[in-house]
């Protein structure tokens, strides 16, 4: 909520400021109240499987009733109890993708006996006892401990949200059945305890059973336009792939693998090292993180990146703390990074440190079928305008896709060039230009469910669709072409609401939807530096450094009383559009946004130049905006300002210099501190979310002073 | 596969990148045609750009200005995936303006059904639609700001190779065939500016067998030493996954964390 996109000017919206990186505390406080008042949906929590939930008219289930082994001497301590642990015989079954079906253990509500969750429709979700001589508790019962780790008064102190307001939220949230939801994502998850935000969101949704329900947490979705089984073409299956996966290769961002499972750890132990520690943090549950990968590149750990391909992004600026001289200097060094190719429309912070720049097309000149939007269907973005980049003799234009296609063909990769894309009947089609790919996706959209009509001839002429480049028509069949044009003429295809909303109030295309009340993966994860664990149920985890020690154990809250957040800018697009005169006219720069009371105490007036300084001496300097709505004890910065490149710099092409425009560099970016525990002896490591491996953008420590 | 006149073209476009307005020239705009101005029942357009159609507010009759093409597409001012409406000059192909797509539920409260004729879409922009602003497609300020991406002075429209130390800001335009050959074959790519070390190109790194480090086979093969990254959820990054999987790297990153 510190980073939210909801505006207080919307009718019925109350803006309640919250301290950054305390979303977990607010969610835990609300759940504490729900458990106190028993205002959760007890029916929903008793369903141990999707089948049972659906039979009762709901759309989702939880693992609230699954038993957890809490006997410290048991070999499976902290794990969810499996049928074998309970001495229950179950059939051996495999899932569709070949994994063994897991049979968890619950207490059946009818018999009060232990049973496999797969053979139980209603289970006891609040339970503590013994099964087969093993001490167990349900995940729900365990969550009671973690959400009660603080009193409501303490949560109010932590979050900056008054107790009465938390009580009001909890009452309101539980007063509308399934027709409520919680939204949180994006920036609010990019904090040092970022995982707590989506975790709390999911738990709150699950406790009232709002998933896949009309009025609640309703999915949007789109038809299959690319994958196997799409109506006309399969754009994802490629035969003859080399099979390099996370099973036999390590992702550069050090995720998805426990430190003690790495070959490096094993080798160092074999060489006699006791309890070796990695140069940078490993994230057992983190899947991928461009920010961590960037830090891996500059530290050449766990291995060197030889070729970096950067497409229209600004990983340096988007990684808090990374846009500093020490990091940029290493990216400039060919010994650290031998080859860097950037594809973009401007020379931004990444292109500035490139060896080669490939011109890209803009949104008026490119194709794409993004997911998202508010309804079922897909928007189609297409080459509606002739690109400004050079045209090649085969009719394609220089852009990111052309780079990928031509490099892939030069390397002889499967799935590119001739015989690359199978249609629904298995016949193969070429992939030599962007149209070959995207217009086949448009054909899939045109034929999804009920095929659209052919385009009206007059409408085709009206939009000049009879004069499109030759590659377009060649990308699909004669039969498909007029239907593809019809979809292009509308910029996509959206289905009416009734298509996805069943008369019974549920999503018409229900999919199994499970929420973890007890997160077994987190329960088993240990920190690579301290061996500490984070709790497996919802709670508040204060900001921590890489070994899970509290930031406040290292630095004084009295000296550095402020924390921080960043939010999406209204007048930029993430790190982009600062080169847009239209956007700069509306808002020339951003601000350090400070609470009125805080400003009064510090003697800061609106418009003063102020500095936010970290314990490590990083300085963010900008113009103060003293305002209501900003929580006390934290400052906030609109993200994407404070460029050093992107047109702010001089550009010399063949000796002709285009002078940089300082207006593009206007504003301030947060100079976040590095993680002081790993950033020693030349290592550069960022503040991190210890679960998702996301960067710690929000929730650091600062003092604020007048410049 | 490169055009014969590539080198000359490359040079001209490099000049464009140096500060002259690129030819898309949204800021310039074209003057309204005489026909439109004379026949229009509405005040002359304030922006100096032709209107795409006029609608009789009483009868709802639509008459389209055939000098202007209106195409419906998608906006990437952010990642909400709203639709947009692109106005093009039929004669030159220039972008005249951008607005909302009345067929797209993200831009219209009561979106037009897919089957509604284009005439209805023109009418939805007028006072004659009877629905006020509910059906009118709109995009926000950022969506309008995307116009500047096409026409910005600093836009790169030709391949560039660095002509100084990395990060120094010195570039030279090169042809596509040269860029492709250099990045795939590798070699002493910057010998001409005094850097005589060898650089491995894509072909050399494309080794899906030899481990990065024989002591640590879990790091994966050499092909895993390339990174592809982007932050855009604009429907183009699926090809990054295809490239990564077929090249043999797990290092395909998206916007997830930054």
Key features?
heterodimer, A: 707 residues, alpha/beta, Barwin-like endoglucanases, Dimethylsulfoxide Reductase, domain 2, six-stranded mixed beta sheet, three-stranded antiparallel beta sheet, 21 helices, globular, disordered N terminus, B: 258 residues, alpha+beta, N-terminal domain of TfIIb, 2 domains, two-stranded antiparallel sheet, 8 helices, 9 strands, 23% helix, elongated
Q: Could you explain the architecture of this structure?
A:
Chain B: This is Tat pathway signal protein. The complex is a heterodimer of chains A (707) and B (258). Chain A is of the alpha/beta class. Among the domains of chain A are: 1-13 and 543-707, Barwin-like endoglucanases (Beta Barrel), CATH 2.40.40; 23-217 and 507-522, Dimethylsulfoxide Reductase, domain 2 (3-Layer(aba) Sandwich), CATH 3.40.228; 242-305, no CATH class. Chain A has a six-stranded mixed beta sheet. In chain A, a hairpin with a 6-residue loop joins strand 3 and strand 4. Chain A is globular and about 75 Å long. Chain A starts with 22 loop residues before the first helix and ends with a strand. Residues 1-5 of chain A have low confidence and may be disordered. By secondary structure, chain B is of the alpha+beta class. Chain B has two domains: 21-151, ADC-like domains (N-terminal domain of TfIIb), CATH 2.20.25.90; 161-253, no CATH class. Chain B is built from eight helices and nine strands. In chain B, the strands form four sheets. A three-stranded antiparallel beta sheet of chain B has the order 3-4-5, with no helix packed on it. In chain B, strands 1-2 form a two-stranded antiparallel sheet. A two-stranded antiparallel sheet of chain B has the order 6-7. The model of chain B is unreliable at 1-43 (pLDDT under 50). The chains are: A alpha/beta (707), B alpha+beta (258). Chains A and B meet through helix 9, helix 10, strand 7, strand 8 and strand 9 of A and helix 1, strand 3, strand 4, helix 4 and helix 5 of B.
């Amino acid at each position: 909520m510190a980073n939210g996109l909801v505006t207080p000017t919307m009718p019925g919206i109350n803006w309640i400021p919250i301290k950054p990186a305390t979303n977990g505390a607010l969610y835990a406080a609300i759940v504490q109240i729900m458990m106190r008042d028993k205002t959760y949906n007890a029916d929903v929590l008793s369903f141990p499987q999707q089948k049972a939930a659906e039979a009762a008219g709901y759309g989702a289930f939880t693992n609230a009733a699954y038993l957890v082994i809490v006997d410290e001497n048991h070999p499976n301590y902290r794990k969810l109890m499996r049928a074998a642990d309970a001495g229950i015989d179950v059939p051996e079954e495999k899932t569709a993708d070949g994994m063994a079906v897991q049979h968890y253990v619950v207490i059946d509500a009818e018999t009060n006996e232990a049973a496999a969750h797969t053979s139980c429709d209603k289970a006891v979700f609040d339970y503590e006892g013994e099964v087969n001589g093993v001490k167990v508790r349900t995940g729900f019962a365990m969550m009671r401990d973690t959400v009660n780790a603080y009193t409501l008064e303490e949560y109010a102190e932590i979050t900056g949200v008054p107790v009465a307001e938390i009580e009001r939220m909890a009452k309101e949230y539980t007063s509308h059945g399934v027709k409520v939801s919680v939204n949180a994502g994006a920036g609010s998850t990019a904090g040092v305890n970022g995982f707590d935000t989506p975790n709390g969101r999911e738990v709150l949704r699950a406790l009232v059973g709002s998933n896949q329900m009309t009025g609640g947490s309703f999915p949007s979705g789109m038809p299959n336009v690319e994958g196997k089984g799409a109506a006309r073409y399969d754009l994802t299956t490629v035969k003859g792939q080399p099979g390099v996966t996370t099973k036999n290769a390590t992702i550069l961002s050090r995720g998805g693998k426990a430190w003690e499972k790495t070959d490096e750890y094993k080798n160092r132990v074999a060489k006699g090292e006791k309890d070796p520690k990695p140069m940078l943090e490993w994230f057992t549950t983190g899947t991928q993180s461009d920010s961590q990968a960037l830090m891996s590149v500059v530290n050449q750990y766990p291995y060197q990146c030889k070729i970096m391909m950067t497409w229209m992004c600004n990983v340096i600026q988007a990684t808090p703390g990374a846009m500093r001289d020490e990091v940029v200097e290493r990216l400039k060094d060919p010994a650290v990074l031998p080859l860097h190719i950037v594809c973009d429309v401007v020379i931004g912070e990444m292109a500035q440190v490139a060896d080669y720049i490939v011109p890209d097309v803009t949104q008026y000149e490119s194709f794409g079928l993004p997911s998202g939007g508010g309804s079922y269907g897909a928007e189609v973005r297409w080459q509606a305008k002739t690109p400004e980049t050079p045209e090649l003799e085969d009719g394609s234009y220089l852009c990111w896709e052309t780079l990928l296609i031509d490099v892939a063909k030069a390397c002889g990769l499967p799935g590119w060039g001739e015989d690359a894309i199978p249609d629904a009947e298995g016949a193969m089609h070429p992939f030599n230009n962007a149209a070959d790919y995207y217009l086949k996706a448009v054909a899939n959209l045109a034929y999804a469910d009920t095929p659209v009509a052919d385009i009206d001839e007059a409408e085709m002429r009206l939009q000049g669709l009879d004069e499109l480049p030759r590659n377009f028509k060649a990308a699909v069949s004669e039969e498909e072409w007029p239907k593809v044009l019809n979809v292009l003429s509308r910029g996509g295809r959206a289905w009416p609401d009734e298509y996805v909303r069943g008369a019974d109030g549920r999503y018409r295309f229900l999919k199994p939807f499970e929420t973890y009340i007890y997160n077994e993966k987190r329960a088993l994860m240990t920190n690579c530096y301290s061996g500490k664990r984070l709790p497996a149920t919802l709670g508040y985890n204060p900001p921590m450094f890489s070994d899970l020690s509290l930031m406040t154990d290292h630095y004084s809250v009295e000296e550095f009383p402020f924390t921080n957040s960043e939010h999406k800018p209204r007048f930029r697009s993430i790190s982009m559009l600062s080169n847009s005169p239209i956007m700069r006219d509306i808002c020339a720069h951003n601000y350090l946004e400070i609470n009125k009371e805080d400003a009064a105490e510090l003697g800061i007036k609106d418009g003063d130049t102020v500095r936010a300084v970290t314990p490590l001496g990083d300085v963010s300097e900008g113009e103060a905006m003293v305002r209501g709505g900003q929580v006390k004890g934290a400052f906030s910065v609109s993200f994407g300002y404070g460029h050093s490149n992107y047109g702010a710099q001089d550009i010399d092409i063949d000796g002709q210099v285009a002078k940089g425009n300082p207006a593009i560099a206007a504003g301030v970016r947060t100079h976040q501190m590095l993680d002081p525990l790993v950033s020693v002896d030349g290592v550069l490591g960022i503040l991190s979310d210890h679960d998702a491996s996301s960067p710690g953008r929000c929730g650091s420590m600062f003092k604020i002073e007048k410049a | 596969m490169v055009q014969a006149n590539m080198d000359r073209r490359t040079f001209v476009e490099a000049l464009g990148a140096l500060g002259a307005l690129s030819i898309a020239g949204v800021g310039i705009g074209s003057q309204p045609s005489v026909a439109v101005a004379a026949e229009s029942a509405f005040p002359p357009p304030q922006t100096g750009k032709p209107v795409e159609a006029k609608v009789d507010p009483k009868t709802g009759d639509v008459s389209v200005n055939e000098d202007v093409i209106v195409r419906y597409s998608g906006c990437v001012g952010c990642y909400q995936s709203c639709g947009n409406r692109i106005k093009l000059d039929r004669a030159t192909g220039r972008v005249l303006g951008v607005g909302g797509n009345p067929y797209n539920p993200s831009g219209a409260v009561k979106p037009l059904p897919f089957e509604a004729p284009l005439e209805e879409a023109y009418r939805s922009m007028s006072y004659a639609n009877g629905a006020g602003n509910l059906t009118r497609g709109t995009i926000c300020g950022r969506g309008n700001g995307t116009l500047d991406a096409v026409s910005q002075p600093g836009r790169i429209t030709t391949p560039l190779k660095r002509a100084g130390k990395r990060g120094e800001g010195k570039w030279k335009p090169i042809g596509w065939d040269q860029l492709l050959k250099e990045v795939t074959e590798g070699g002493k790519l910057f010998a001409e500016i005094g850097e005589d070390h060898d650089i491995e190109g894509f072909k050399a790194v494309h080794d899906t067998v030899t481990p990065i480090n024989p002591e640590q086979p879990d790091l994966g093969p050499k092909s895993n030493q390339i990174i592809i990254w982007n932050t855009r959820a604009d429907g183009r990054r699926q090809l990054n996954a295809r490239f990564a999987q077929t090249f043999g790297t797990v290092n395909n990153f998206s916007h997830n964390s930054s």
